[in-house]
Amino acid sequence: MIFKIGRSKSPWIFHLNTGSCNGCDIEIVALFASRYDVERLGCKLVGSPKHADICLVTGPVTARSKEPLLKIYDMLPNPKVIVCVGACSISSGVFTDGYSIVGPAHKLIPVTAYVGGCSAHPKNIFLGLKKAIEVFKEGR
Amino acid sequence: MLPLIRILIENIFKPPITEDISSVNLPKHPKGFHGHPEHDPTRCIACGICQYFCPAKVIKISQIDDKINYHMDLDQCTCCGQCIDYCPTNAIKHRPNPYFVTTNLDDFKVDHQINLIKCAKCGAFIPDMTLIANKLFGEGKPIPKHLSLCPKCKRKP
Ligand code: SF4
Ligand code: SF4
């Protein structure tokens, strides 16, 4: 009960790059910077998946980053909430059928919310986070 | 020790220092922002120029009997705006609310049916060229005969 309230009020966020071009990563950092500033809402970027409530995945999942992705997915505490950010992580985007691509992420792990765009706008990433927070409120 | 206990008890009854996530409003998208494209099937003439210029192979146009099926996989779209720039009839526009945010992947799929008209001579199905004719010759002017013929009939004398 306390966990549920705490998570829906101040979700901690882990950011995972699975081979993206850094565009979406910069937008995620912009979300935490002064203009959009979600730290005032209690969201916090953390360095370890074991501390995180929400995992933001960017990138089309290259063959090299498949194993880290699955490992980090195991490390996340329950309920595991994944938000795919950007066209690449939703469908591999322009890298579809590339020789080094094993993704997209929803083929490998269950995904809660999708944020479209290339690269995704910070405001839309925030809307995606909101959808993820609804999952905590419902208590999946 | 006592002040510490006082602060702890005070903190239990204080409201949180953070703002509420569900009621907060973030700054708006800037004007002229490149969002996902939005296709208008009533203006489209199924010329295929957008399919040719799209770098991400988002757009797939195919003919099913008397209709054209216009399919978009917007989950792959890079929002570059090439289709918008090159469309001759301005059938594609940027979305007013730029990007999709969903929990369901099917929301990214767009399927539109474009109606075709019959060739004046042989009755084969061809796209309606009225919008192009209006653009070339001005609104309300008569549409030239060759625009209402299928490619085969055009070549015949
Ligand atoms: S370029 Fe415009 S008119 Fe031509 S097929 Fe695409 S949307 Fe339709
Ligand atoms: S915006 Fe670019 S990627 Fe998206 S459909 Fe148009 S041409 Fe293709």
From TrEMBL, chain A:
Metal-binding among keywords: yes
Molecular function in Gene Ontology: 4 iron, 4 sulfur cluster binding; metal ion binding
Keyword annotations from UniProtKB, A to Z: 4Fe-4S, Iron, Iron-sulfur, Metal-binding, Ubiquinone
Keyword Metal-binding part of the UniProt annotation: yes
Every NADH:ubiquinone oxidoreductase-like 20kDa subunit domain range: 21-131
Gene3D superfamilies: 3.40.50.12280
Cofactor: [4Fe-4S] cluster
Pfam family, one: Oxidored_q6
Family statement drawn from the similarity comment of this UniProt entry: Belongs to the complex I 20 kDa subunit family.
PANTHER family associated with the record: FORMATE HYDROGENLYASE SUBUNIT 7-RELATED, HYDROGENASE-4 COMPONENT I
Name the record gives this protein: NADH ubiquinone oxidoreductase 20 kDa subunit
Organism: Thermodesulfobium narugense DSM 14796
From TrEMBL, chain B:
PROSITE patterns: 4FE4S_FER_1, 4FE4S_FER_2
A cellular component annotation (GO) from this entry: membrane
4Fe-4S ferredoxin-type domain boundaries: 35-64, 68-97
UniProt keywords, alphabetically: 4Fe-4S, Iron, Iron-sulfur, Metal-binding, Repeat
Pfam families: Fer4_9 (PF13187)
Gene Ontology molecular-function annotations: 4 iron, 4 sulfur cluster binding; metal ion binding; oxidoreductase activity, acting on NAD(P)H
InterPro entries tied to this protein: 4Fe4S_Fe-S-bd, 4Fe4S_Fe_S_CS, NADH_quinone_OxRdtase_chainI
Name this protein carries in UniProt: 4Fe-4S ferredoxin iron-sulfur binding domain-containing protein
Protein's organism: Thermodesulfobium narugense DSM 14796
